[in-house]
Write a structure and sequence with these properties.
By secondary structure, the chain is of the alpha+beta class. 19% of the residues lie in helices and 32% in strands.
């Protein structure tokens, strides 16, 4: 049947999430974080939530969209294809984050359809903390085609960071994030969905990339990250080592990045980040 295009533009009821230190630190540990900003309370700003924690705080809003029976999403055929996050204010324990979801795009794609959802996240004072655009690809009967673009010689990156995905990473991330889609935690169902086995959440891969960027470009201060976007090119498997290369982009404070698997094939491409002063 496909996605119901009559729901394009639909805005869903706001959903509230109360942030706890236990939840933010568990999320940080779920992607092997070691940055003191996320664990040590004896600093002026106290403990901060990792930037990608906004995806946890807005998870219920996103699921309200994805599980809307009128929209007709086949969750087993859903693959997270893109994520674009803009950061306006740090999230801290004690915050009550209210997120509002709106369907902003439903489009035909080779081999399936894409669904884009805007998530507007505010704290208890009404201040916008994050704006997130979540884009999913829902696979149809065909295979998704990929556009290949000829490029010139790639310059040496400013930074290159390698990180190892643990064998149990997908299970730990599922528990900390609330995303228990069976393709990430059930081998049989993942294969039934046409995958080689359990795959790591796209946002877990992005969390690893965000750590590489914050550690190397932000001098480990997460308050300087203003925007992070990613195209998820292919799944990451448990046990793999991924490598993120970072290049300065044309505008001051902007960077391009790409994350590859052990075979050198991109798992995040394109990747884009904006860095500024402390929020």
């Amino acid at each position: 049947m496909g996605l119901n295009r009559d729901l394009l533009g639909k805005e869903y009821d706001p959903q509230a999430y109360v942030v706890s230190a236990e939840a933010t630190t568990a999320y940080a540990r779920a992607y092997n974080e070691d940055n003191a900003w996320f664990f040590e309370a004896d600093r002026p700003a106290g403990i901060l939530a990792p930037p990608l924690f906004g995806a946890v705080a807005s998870w219920l809003s996103l699921m309200t969209v994805v599980t809307d029976a009128e929209l007709n999403v086949d969750v087993l055929r859903l693959v997270h294809s893109q994520q674009d996050m803009r950061f306006f204010h740090p999230i801290i324990p004690g915050d009550m984050i209210t997120s509002t979801a709106r369907i902003v795009a439903i489009e035909e794609q080779p081999g399936g359809e894409s669904l884009a959802v805007d998530l507007h996240c505010c704290n208890q004072t009404g201040e916008t903390v994050q704006r997130i655009t979540f884009t999913a690809f829902i696979r149809g009967q065909g295979r998704r085609s990929r556009t290949r673009v000829a490029t010139g010689e790639t310059p040496e990156p400013l930074h290159r960071v390698s990180q190892t995905i643990d064998a149990d990473q997908a299970f730990r991330y599922a528990n900390a994030s609330g995303d228990r889609n069976p393709i990430h935690i059930d081998e049989d169902i993942a294969k039934l969905a046409g995958l080689p086995g359990i795959i790591v959440h796209g946002l877990c891969t992005l969390a690893f990339a965000s750590k590489a960027i914050i550690d190397s470009v932000c001098e480990k201060d997460p308050r300087r990250l203003r925007r992070l976007s990613a195209g998820f090119a292919r799944p990451v498997l448990p046990g793999q080592t991924i490598t993120t290369a970072i290049w300065p982009d044309t505008n001051p404070g902007s960077y391009r990045y790409e994350t590859v698997n052990p075979s050198g094939r991109a798992v995040i491409k394109p990747g884009y980040a904006e860095i500024g002063g402390v929020l």
